[in-house]
Design a protein that fits this description.
Strand content of chain A: under 5%
Helix content of chain A: 55-70%
Number of strands of chain B: 5
Strand order of the largest sheet of chain A: 1-2
Strand content of chain B: 15-25%
Shape of chain B: elongated
Radius of gyration of chain A: 18 Å
Oligomer: heterodimer
Helix content of chain B: 25-40%
Number of helices of chain B: 3
Largest interface: A-B, 33 and 31 residues
Order of helices and strands of chain A: HHHHHHHEEH
Distance between the termini of chain B: 72 Å
Number of strands of chain A: 2
Strand order of the largest sheet of chain B: 1-2-3-4-5
Order of helices and strands of chain B: HEEEEEHH
Structural class of chain A: mainly alpha
Largest sheet of chain B: 5 strands, antiparallel
Chain lengths: 197, 196
Protein backbone atom coordinates (compact mmCIF):
# COMPACT_ATOMS: atom_id res chain seq x y z
CA UNK A 1 0.00 0.00 0.00
CA UNK A 2 2.73 2.41 1.06
CA UNK A 3 4.86 1.29 -1.86
CA UNK A 4 2.02 2.15 -4.29
CA UNK A 5 1.97 5.69 -3.01
CA UNK A 6 5.65 6.47 -2.59
CA UNK A 7 6.98 4.95 -5.80
CA UNK A 8 5.34 7.77 -7.79
CA UNK A 9 7.13 10.47 -5.83
CA UNK A 10 10.79 9.57 -6.18
CA UNK A 11 11.59 6.13 -7.61
CA UNK A 12 9.11 6.27 -10.50
CA UNK A 13 8.56 10.01 -10.57
CA UNK A 14 6.62 10.57 -13.81
CA UNK A 15 8.64 13.63 -14.84
CA UNK A 16 12.15 13.09 -13.50
CA UNK A 17 12.44 9.33 -13.94
CA UNK A 18 9.82 8.16 -16.45
CA UNK A 19 10.10 11.42 -18.44
CA UNK A 20 6.39 11.33 -19.21
CA UNK A 21 4.15 14.33 -19.75
CA UNK A 22 6.98 16.64 -20.76
CA UNK A 23 4.72 18.97 -22.76
CA UNK A 24 2.85 20.54 -19.81
CA UNK A 25 5.97 20.15 -17.68
CA UNK A 26 7.97 22.42 -19.92
CA UNK A 27 5.09 24.57 -21.07
CA UNK A 28 3.46 25.84 -17.91
CA UNK A 29 6.17 25.91 -15.26
CA UNK A 30 7.18 29.53 -15.73
CA UNK A 31 6.01 30.23 -12.18
CA UNK A 32 5.47 28.24 -8.98
CA UNK A 33 1.72 28.92 -8.93
CA UNK A 34 1.30 27.64 -12.48
CA UNK A 35 3.24 24.48 -11.66
CA UNK A 36 1.19 23.84 -8.55
CA UNK A 37 -2.12 24.48 -10.33
CA UNK A 38 -1.28 22.26 -13.28
CA UNK A 39 0.01 19.52 -10.96
CA UNK A 40 -3.10 19.61 -8.79
CA UNK A 41 -5.43 19.46 -11.81
CA UNK A 42 -3.54 16.49 -13.23
CA UNK A 43 -3.46 14.76 -9.83
CA UNK A 44 -7.24 15.09 -9.52
CA UNK A 45 -7.75 13.57 -12.98
CA UNK A 46 -5.27 10.77 -12.22
CA UNK A 47 -6.98 9.76 -8.97
CA UNK A 48 -10.52 9.94 -10.34
CA UNK A 49 -9.82 8.22 -13.66
CA UNK A 50 -7.75 5.48 -11.98
CA UNK A 51 -10.61 4.86 -9.57
CA UNK A 52 -13.32 4.84 -12.27
CA UNK A 53 -11.30 2.61 -14.58
CA UNK A 54 -10.47 0.12 -11.82
CA UNK A 55 -14.19 -0.11 -11.02
CA UNK A 56 -15.37 -0.75 -14.58
CA UNK A 57 -12.40 -2.74 -15.91
CA UNK A 58 -14.21 -6.09 -15.73
CA UNK A 59 -17.21 -5.05 -17.81
CA UNK A 60 -15.21 -3.39 -20.58
CA UNK A 61 -14.30 -5.70 -23.45
CA UNK A 62 -10.62 -5.67 -24.31
CA UNK A 63 -11.12 -4.33 -27.84
CA UNK A 64 -12.76 -1.07 -26.79
CA UNK A 65 -10.66 -0.65 -23.66
CA UNK A 66 -8.67 2.37 -24.91
CA UNK A 67 -11.64 4.40 -26.26
CA UNK A 68 -13.58 3.73 -23.07
CA UNK A 69 -10.62 4.85 -20.92
CA UNK A 70 -10.15 7.98 -22.99
CA UNK A 71 -13.82 8.91 -22.65
CA UNK A 72 -13.60 8.50 -18.87
CA UNK A 73 -10.40 10.57 -18.68
CA UNK A 74 -11.80 13.27 -20.99
CA UNK A 75 -14.92 13.54 -18.83
CA UNK A 76 -12.87 14.19 -15.69
CA UNK A 77 -10.65 16.69 -17.50
CA UNK A 78 -13.72 18.64 -18.63
CA UNK A 79 -15.00 18.61 -15.05
CA UNK A 80 -11.68 20.08 -13.88
CA UNK A 81 -11.78 22.75 -16.54
CA UNK A 82 -15.34 23.81 -15.73
CA UNK A 83 -14.52 23.96 -12.02
CA UNK A 84 -11.38 26.01 -12.64
CA UNK A 85 -13.18 28.42 -14.96
CA UNK A 86 -15.80 28.91 -12.27
CA UNK A 87 -13.68 29.19 -9.13
CA UNK A 88 -10.10 30.03 -10.17
CA UNK A 89 -10.61 32.04 -13.40
CA UNK A 90 -7.19 33.73 -13.24
CA UNK A 91 -5.30 30.44 -13.00
CA UNK A 92 -7.52 28.92 -15.68
CA UNK A 93 -6.52 31.67 -18.06
CA UNK A 94 -2.83 31.26 -17.26
CA UNK A 95 -2.89 27.52 -17.91
CA UNK A 96 -5.17 27.93 -20.91
CA UNK A 97 -4.90 25.12 -23.42
CA UNK A 98 -2.80 22.95 -21.13
CA UNK A 99 -5.82 21.95 -19.04
CA UNK A 100 -7.77 20.30 -21.89
CA UNK A 101 -4.46 18.75 -22.97
CA UNK A 102 -4.40 16.66 -19.76
CA UNK A 103 -6.58 14.24 -21.77
CA UNK A 104 -3.61 13.30 -23.92
CA UNK A 105 -1.08 13.39 -21.06
CA UNK A 106 0.59 10.00 -21.30
CA UNK A 107 0.86 9.69 -17.52
CA UNK A 108 -2.91 9.50 -17.15
CA UNK A 109 -3.54 6.90 -19.85
CA UNK A 110 -0.28 5.20 -18.89
CA UNK A 111 -1.42 4.63 -15.30
CA UNK A 112 -4.86 3.52 -16.53
CA UNK A 113 -3.30 0.89 -18.77
CA UNK A 114 -0.40 -0.17 -16.61
CA UNK A 115 -2.03 -0.09 -13.21
CA UNK A 116 -5.75 0.64 -12.90
CA UNK A 117 -6.82 -1.96 -15.47
CA UNK A 118 -5.08 -4.68 -13.42
CA UNK A 119 -5.53 -3.67 -9.79
CA UNK A 120 -8.25 -3.03 -7.22
CA UNK A 121 -10.01 0.30 -6.89
CA UNK A 122 -8.24 1.27 -3.65
CA UNK A 123 -4.77 0.37 -4.91
CA UNK A 124 -5.45 2.28 -8.15
CA UNK A 125 -6.56 5.36 -6.28
CA UNK A 126 -3.41 5.30 -4.16
CA UNK A 127 -1.29 4.77 -7.26
CA UNK A 128 -2.99 7.74 -8.91
CA UNK A 129 -2.48 9.88 -5.83
CA UNK A 130 1.22 8.95 -5.60
CA UNK A 131 1.80 9.69 -9.29
CA UNK A 132 -0.22 12.91 -8.98
CA UNK A 133 1.79 14.08 -5.99
CA UNK A 134 5.02 13.15 -7.79
CA UNK A 135 3.94 15.11 -10.87
CA UNK A 136 2.88 18.10 -8.77
CA UNK A 137 6.17 17.98 -6.86
CA UNK A 138 8.13 17.97 -10.12
CA UNK A 139 6.16 20.87 -11.62
CA UNK A 140 6.32 22.86 -8.42
CA UNK A 141 10.09 22.38 -8.16
CA UNK A 142 10.61 23.41 -11.79
CA UNK A 143 8.26 26.36 -11.47
CA UNK A 144 9.85 27.58 -8.23
CA UNK A 145 13.39 27.43 -9.62
CA UNK A 146 12.43 29.12 -12.88
CA UNK A 147 10.48 31.86 -11.11
CA UNK A 148 13.31 32.46 -8.63
CA UNK A 149 15.99 32.76 -11.30
CA UNK A 150 13.92 34.35 -14.03
CA UNK A 151 11.80 36.78 -12.08
CA UNK A 152 13.50 36.92 -8.65
CA UNK A 153 10.18 36.15 -7.00
CA UNK A 154 8.64 33.32 -4.98
CA UNK A 155 4.95 32.51 -5.55
CA UNK A 156 4.50 35.95 -7.10
CA UNK A 157 6.15 37.67 -4.13
CA UNK A 158 9.04 39.78 -5.41
CA UNK A 159 12.20 39.09 -3.40
CA UNK A 160 14.50 41.63 -5.03
CA UNK A 161 13.37 44.64 -7.07
CA UNK A 162 15.37 43.83 -10.17
CA UNK A 163 15.14 41.92 -13.43
CA UNK A 164 15.96 38.23 -13.27
CA UNK A 165 17.69 36.04 -15.81
CA UNK A 166 15.01 36.26 -18.47
CA UNK A 167 15.82 33.01 -20.23
CA UNK A 168 14.60 30.95 -17.28
CA UNK A 169 10.98 32.01 -17.72
CA UNK A 170 11.19 31.38 -21.47
CA UNK A 171 10.98 27.96 -23.10
CA UNK A 172 14.74 27.26 -23.25
CA UNK A 173 14.92 27.84 -19.49
CA UNK A 174 12.49 24.99 -18.99
CA UNK A 175 14.76 22.56 -20.81
CA UNK A 176 17.86 23.81 -19.02
CA UNK A 177 16.28 23.56 -15.57
CA UNK A 178 14.76 20.13 -16.22
CA UNK A 179 18.12 18.91 -17.51
CA UNK A 180 19.96 20.08 -14.40
CA UNK A 181 17.37 18.53 -12.07
CA UNK A 182 17.55 15.15 -13.83
CA UNK A 183 21.35 15.28 -13.82
CA UNK A 184 21.35 16.00 -10.09
CA UNK A 185 18.99 13.09 -9.44
CA UNK A 186 21.15 10.72 -11.50
CA UNK A 187 24.26 11.88 -9.69
CA UNK A 188 22.64 11.32 -6.28
CA UNK A 189 21.48 7.86 -7.35
CA UNK A 190 24.92 6.88 -8.61
CA UNK A 191 26.58 8.04 -5.42
CA UNK A 192 24.05 5.98 -3.46
CA UNK A 193 24.69 2.81 -5.42
CA UNK A 194 28.47 3.23 -5.15
CA UNK A 195 28.20 3.47 -1.40
CA UNK A 196 26.19 0.26 -1.07
CA UNK A 197 28.52 -1.79 -3.27
CA UNK B 1 -11.15 -11.38 -13.60
CA UNK B 2 -11.92 -12.40 -17.18
CA UNK B 3 -12.86 -9.31 -19.16
CA UNK B 4 -16.24 -9.19 -20.87
CA UNK B 5 -16.50 -10.99 -24.21
CA UNK B 6 -15.54 -8.95 -27.28
CA UNK B 7 -18.65 -9.66 -29.32
CA UNK B 8 -19.80 -6.90 -31.65
CA UNK B 9 -22.96 -6.25 -29.65
CA UNK B 10 -20.98 -6.08 -26.42
CA UNK B 11 -18.59 -3.52 -27.86
CA UNK B 12 -21.41 -1.28 -29.02
CA UNK B 13 -23.33 -1.54 -25.76
CA UNK B 14 -20.29 -0.87 -23.58
CA UNK B 15 -19.15 2.19 -25.49
CA UNK B 16 -22.70 3.56 -25.61
CA UNK B 17 -23.08 3.22 -21.85
CA UNK B 18 -19.66 4.71 -21.12
CA UNK B 19 -20.26 7.77 -23.32
CA UNK B 20 -23.82 8.17 -22.05
CA UNK B 21 -22.73 8.21 -18.39
CA UNK B 22 -19.86 10.57 -19.20
CA UNK B 23 -22.07 13.05 -21.04
CA UNK B 24 -24.79 12.93 -18.40
CA UNK B 25 -22.34 13.76 -15.62
CA UNK B 26 -20.78 16.50 -17.73
CA UNK B 27 -24.21 18.01 -18.33
CA UNK B 28 -24.74 18.07 -14.60
CA UNK B 29 -21.38 19.74 -13.85
CA UNK B 30 -21.99 22.24 -16.66
CA UNK B 31 -25.33 23.30 -15.16
CA UNK B 32 -23.73 23.52 -11.74
CA UNK B 33 -20.80 25.74 -12.84
CA UNK B 34 -22.71 27.83 -15.40
CA UNK B 35 -23.55 30.62 -13.01
CA UNK B 36 -20.15 30.94 -11.26
CA UNK B 37 -18.45 31.02 -14.68
CA UNK B 38 -20.74 33.81 -15.91
CA UNK B 39 -20.12 35.70 -12.67
CA UNK B 40 -16.35 35.31 -12.98
CA UNK B 41 -16.45 36.64 -16.55
CA UNK B 42 -18.64 39.58 -15.52
CA UNK B 43 -16.25 40.36 -12.65
CA UNK B 44 -13.32 40.30 -15.05
CA UNK B 45 -15.02 42.74 -17.45
CA UNK B 46 -16.00 45.04 -14.60
CA UNK B 47 -12.49 44.99 -13.18
CA UNK B 48 -11.06 46.02 -16.54
CA UNK B 49 -13.66 48.79 -16.93
CA UNK B 50 -13.15 50.00 -13.36
CA UNK B 51 -9.45 50.54 -13.91
CA UNK B 52 -9.90 52.68 -17.04
CA UNK B 53 -12.92 54.87 -16.25
CA UNK B 54 -14.07 56.08 -12.86
CA UNK B 55 -16.89 57.83 -11.08
CA UNK B 56 -19.79 56.03 -12.77
CA UNK B 57 -22.82 54.59 -11.01
CA UNK B 58 -24.32 52.35 -13.70
CA UNK B 59 -23.34 48.81 -14.72
CA UNK B 60 -21.46 49.38 -18.01
CA UNK B 61 -21.54 45.67 -18.88
CA UNK B 62 -25.33 45.58 -18.94
CA UNK B 63 -25.46 48.65 -21.23
CA UNK B 64 -22.69 47.58 -23.58
CA UNK B 65 -23.09 47.80 -27.33
CA UNK B 66 -20.96 47.07 -30.38
CA UNK B 67 -19.84 49.50 -33.07
CA UNK B 68 -18.05 48.67 -36.33
CA UNK B 69 -14.46 49.86 -36.75
CA UNK B 70 -13.87 52.52 -39.47
CA UNK B 71 -12.46 49.95 -41.88
CA UNK B 72 -15.63 47.93 -41.33
CA UNK B 73 -13.80 44.65 -40.87
CA UNK B 74 -14.47 44.22 -37.18
CA UNK B 75 -16.59 45.65 -34.41
CA UNK B 76 -15.61 46.76 -30.93
CA UNK B 77 -17.47 46.48 -27.68
CA UNK B 78 -18.32 49.79 -25.97
CA UNK B 79 -19.04 50.04 -22.25
CA UNK B 80 -20.66 53.41 -21.45
CA UNK B 81 -19.89 54.83 -17.99
CA UNK B 82 -22.73 57.03 -16.76
CA UNK B 83 -23.27 59.11 -13.67
CA UNK B 84 -26.90 59.93 -12.87
CA UNK B 85 -27.80 58.96 -16.41
CA UNK B 86 -25.26 61.28 -18.01
CA UNK B 87 -22.42 59.87 -20.09
CA UNK B 88 -19.05 60.62 -18.49
CA UNK B 89 -16.82 58.24 -20.38
CA UNK B 90 -16.57 55.07 -22.41
CA UNK B 91 -14.47 51.96 -21.99
CA UNK B 92 -13.67 50.40 -25.35
CA UNK B 93 -12.54 46.80 -25.63
CA UNK B 94 -10.10 46.57 -28.49
CA UNK B 95 -7.60 44.07 -29.81
CA UNK B 96 -4.65 43.65 -32.09
CA UNK B 97 -3.59 40.49 -33.87
CA UNK B 98 -0.24 41.98 -34.84
CA UNK B 99 1.52 41.19 -31.58
CA UNK B 100 4.50 38.90 -31.25
CA UNK B 101 2.34 35.91 -30.31
CA UNK B 102 -1.42 35.73 -30.17
CA UNK B 103 -3.98 38.49 -29.80
CA UNK B 104 -3.55 41.44 -27.45
CA UNK B 105 -6.80 42.52 -25.79
CA UNK B 106 -6.99 45.99 -24.26
CA UNK B 107 -9.61 48.03 -22.46
CA UNK B 108 -9.16 51.71 -23.27
CA UNK B 109 -10.99 54.34 -21.23
CA UNK B 110 -11.95 57.65 -22.87
CA UNK B 111 -13.67 60.64 -21.32
CA UNK B 112 -16.29 62.44 -23.41
CA UNK B 113 -13.59 64.62 -25.03
CA UNK B 114 -11.75 61.57 -26.26
CA UNK B 115 -8.81 61.89 -23.83
CA UNK B 116 -7.37 58.55 -22.78
CA UNK B 117 -8.07 58.02 -19.08
CA UNK B 118 -6.23 54.76 -18.68
CA UNK B 119 -5.48 51.52 -20.49
CA UNK B 120 -5.83 48.04 -19.06
CA UNK B 121 -4.30 44.96 -20.66
CA UNK B 122 -6.97 42.27 -20.48
CA UNK B 123 -5.10 39.47 -22.15
CA UNK B 124 -1.85 38.88 -24.00
CA UNK B 125 0.61 36.12 -24.78
CA UNK B 126 3.67 38.30 -25.43
CA UNK B 127 7.14 37.24 -24.32
CA UNK B 128 7.50 37.43 -20.51
CA UNK B 129 10.00 40.09 -19.54
CA UNK B 130 9.94 41.82 -22.95
CA UNK B 131 6.51 42.37 -24.50
CA UNK B 132 4.82 41.73 -21.18
CA UNK B 133 6.25 45.05 -19.98
CA UNK B 134 3.30 46.75 -21.69
CA UNK B 135 1.31 46.01 -18.54
CA UNK B 136 3.65 48.13 -16.41
CA UNK B 137 2.71 51.69 -15.35
CA UNK B 138 6.05 52.89 -16.71
CA UNK B 139 4.90 52.13 -20.24
CA UNK B 140 1.20 52.99 -19.82
CA UNK B 141 1.99 56.35 -18.21
CA UNK B 142 2.72 57.98 -21.57
CA UNK B 143 -0.87 57.49 -22.78
CA UNK B 144 -2.69 58.83 -19.75
CA UNK B 145 -4.56 62.07 -20.27
CA UNK B 146 -3.39 62.31 -23.87
CA UNK B 147 -5.78 62.71 -26.77
CA UNK B 148 -4.98 60.55 -29.80
CA UNK B 149 -6.10 63.49 -31.95
CA UNK B 150 -2.87 65.25 -30.93
CA UNK B 151 -0.70 62.28 -30.02
CA UNK B 152 0.48 60.27 -32.96
CA UNK B 153 -0.12 56.65 -32.01
CA UNK B 154 2.85 55.07 -33.72
CA UNK B 155 6.26 54.14 -32.42
CA UNK B 156 8.92 56.89 -32.45
CA UNK B 157 10.99 54.79 -34.83
CA UNK B 158 8.07 55.05 -37.29
CA UNK B 159 7.71 58.81 -36.74
CA UNK B 160 5.10 58.72 -33.99
CA UNK B 161 4.94 59.76 -30.35
CA UNK B 162 5.01 56.40 -28.59
CA UNK B 163 8.10 55.34 -26.64
CA UNK B 164 8.62 51.69 -27.58
CA UNK B 165 9.45 49.05 -25.01
CA UNK B 166 13.10 48.06 -25.38
CA UNK B 167 13.30 44.81 -27.31
CA UNK B 168 9.58 44.72 -27.97
CA UNK B 169 8.89 47.12 -30.83
CA UNK B 170 6.44 44.68 -32.42
CA UNK B 171 4.41 44.52 -29.22
CA UNK B 172 4.43 48.30 -28.91
CA UNK B 173 3.29 48.68 -32.51
CA UNK B 174 0.43 46.25 -31.97
CA UNK B 175 -0.52 47.96 -28.71
CA UNK B 176 -0.55 51.42 -30.31
CA UNK B 177 -2.52 50.09 -33.26
CA UNK B 178 -5.19 48.67 -30.96
CA UNK B 179 -5.48 51.99 -29.10
CA UNK B 180 -5.67 53.84 -32.42
CA UNK B 181 -8.51 51.59 -33.63
CA UNK B 182 -10.35 52.19 -30.37
CA UNK B 183 -9.94 55.94 -30.74
CA UNK B 184 -11.04 56.04 -34.39
CA UNK B 185 -14.12 53.96 -33.63
CA UNK B 186 -14.89 56.15 -30.63
CA UNK B 187 -14.47 59.35 -32.65
CA UNK B 188 -16.73 58.08 -35.40
CA UNK B 189 -19.37 57.18 -32.85
CA UNK B 190 -19.39 60.65 -31.27
CA UNK B 191 -19.42 62.43 -34.64
CA UNK B 192 -22.51 60.48 -35.59
CA UNK B 193 -23.97 61.14 -32.17
CA UNK B 194 -24.28 57.40 -31.68
CA UNK B 195 -22.47 57.31 -28.37
CA UNK B 196 -25.66 57.76 -26.49
Amino acid sequence: MKENFFKGIIKENPVFVLLLGCCPTLGVTSSAVNGLGMGAATAFVLVMSNLAIALVKNVIPDKVRIPAFIVIIAAFVTVVQLLMAAYTPALNEQLGLFIPLIVVNCIVLGRAEAFASRNTAVASMIDGLGMGVGFTFALLLLGTIRELLGNLSFFGYKLVEADGILIFVLAPGAFITLGFIIATMKWLKERESKRTH
Amino acid sequence: MAAAKSSFLNLVITLTIVTLVASLSLGYVYEWTKEPIAEAQMAKQLKAIESVVSGYDNNPVLESYRLPTPDGRDSLEFFPAKKKGELIGVAVKTKSSKGYSGDIWLMVGFNVNGDIQNIFVIEHKETPGLGSKMTTPKFLQQFMGRNPATMKLTVKKDGGDVDAITGATITTRAFSGAVQTAHETFKKSTVNGAAN
